[in-house]
Design brief:
Elements: E1 12-14, H1 24-36, E2 41-43, H2 60-71, E3 80-85, H3 104-118, E4 125-128, H4 137-150, E5 156-159, H5 163-176, E6 181-187, H6 209-217, E7 221-225, H7 247-263, H8 267-277, E8 280-284, H9 289-298, H10 305-312
Parallel strand pairs: 1-2, 1-8, 2-3, 3-4, 4-5, 5-6, 6-7, 7-8
Helix pairs in contact: 1-9, 2-3, 3-4, 4-5, 7-8, 7-10, 8-9
């Protein structure tokens, strides 16, 4: 792997399918190039990707990353790793009814497994992957507080959680004198789903105006997963999902096409630039080097305030 050739990139590399549908050679090539181009954050989870694995359970992504870290001495000092706990099926086929959850015991066991698979002594960010209403959020926060106090977790985040649960967790962490949640992860893309619909399998998975306002008011970072609709913005073979089929989409696509032409970029690249301009860190779950290159270029596109206003105008 060569020396980094650019400054830090705001793009997050999602390693969800590494080790399952994305083979090791390709995964290593993408990881290497990501670092070469100034990429820092790599995102995974203990449950990735149970639906595509031979066993029906997760761990393949973390294991692959562990092999990559072992094969690249010194790279750990140049990247930050985020992983998640709470969504791993208890047994093959048990998701979503039976999953690990976020009890103190479950968090401790899941995180210990993640460290072993990654071959690391600590992670830079640990996510609560999805809600566990069967466990008081205070119990989960206390488990996280022990990990941050021990130095094995540097930051904590919440994925697919409603704002009120995040605030409750942050309040309890402050009472404990512990590290509070300071980053959220939700589904976000330029197009908006029809009211009353949800393109994710999480009740609060889609980044809402309230969640974004809450994050801005409290200085909380926001990450966006599936910003490119799995390639549907630019790939004719992947039509835009029907959940986005409504009159507002026509106006937004018109604005997107206009700005993309002005930037000399694709629709997808413009969507990534739009996220960055709004202070949201986009995530790429690509499986090809050319997808990575395009995304790394996109997050550096100079989107002006006037262009951003035009993109945000259509409802």
């Amino acid at each position: 792997m060569t020396t980094a050739t650019s400054t830090t990139s705001p793009l997050v590399l999602g390693a969800m399918m590494f080790g399952t549908t994305v083979d090791e050679t390709t995964s290593f090539a993408i990881l290497d190039r990501f670092v070469e181009r100034g990429g820092v954050w790599i995102d995974t989870a203990d449950c990735y990707s149970f639906w595509a694995s031979e066993t029906g359970q997760g761990g393949d992504s973390e294991r692959l990353l562990g092999r990559w870290f072992a094969a690249r001495p010194g790279v750990r000092d140049r990247v930050k790793i985020a992983t998640k706990v709470g969504a791993e099926p208890l047994w093959a086929g048990s998701f979503p009814d039976r999953r690990a959850g976020l009890s103190r015991r479950a968090v401790d066991a899941a995180f210990a497994g993640s460290l072993e698979r990654l071959g690391l002594e600590s992670v830079d960010l640990l996510w609560l992957h999805m809600e566990d209403r069967a466990t008081p959020i205070e119990e989960t926060v206390e488990a996280l507080a022990e990990l941050t106090s021990a130095g094995t977790v540097r930051r904590v985040g919440a994925s697919n959680h409603p704002a009120w649960r995040v605030e409750r967790a942050r309040s309890h962490a402050r009472r404990l004198g512990a590290t509070p949640i300071d980053v959220l992860q939700h589904n976000s893309t330029y197009l908006r789903p029809r009211p009353g619909t949800n393109p994710t399998n999480h009740p609060f998975g889609v980044l809402s105006d309230e969640q974004r306002d809450y994050a801005q008011a409290h200085g909380i970072e926001v990450w966006a997963y599936t910003p490119l609709l799995s390639g549907a913005y630019d790939n004719p073979a992947k039509p835009i999902p029907a959940i986005y089929d409504h009159p507002g989409t026509t106006a937004r696509l018109r604005a997107l096409d206009e700005i993309a032409a002005e930037l000399g970029a694709t629709r997808g690249q413009t969507v990534l630039a739009w996220h960055v301009a709004r202070g949201v860190r986009p995530m790429l779950g690509g499986s090809k080097l050319d997808q990575l290159e395009a995304a790394m270029d996109a997050v550096r596109l100079p989107l002006s305030a006037e262009q951003l206003a035009r993109l945000d105008a259509p409802m």
